[in-house]
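QA checklist item 7 of 12: single-chain prediction sanity check.
[x] sequence parsed
[x] length recorded as 88
[x] structure emitted
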Amino acid sequence: MELILSITSIVLSLASMALILFRRHTSRQGELQLIARQAVAAARSKAQDGLPLQRLALETALLLDLRDGKQDFSREQLWAAISAEVTK
């Protein structure tokens, strides 16, 4: 009986850890999409001659990402999210 309880406890612990990791990943993806959406909107409103929209959005996204004092996403991740947002 103790063996069954131990196995059940281990399985439930592993399942809860997997759910926590999945939820964290999902929230980071949502945060990345939000930053990209805000950066593209800001870039479109401040479009300048000679400066590509995606480049301006990338610089804006880098600043948005640094709001909390640390960089959460790489330039490549931000560029990919911005490219996806521009092509929508």
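[x] summary fact logged: The chain has a mean pLDDT of 86.
[ ] second reviewer sign-off
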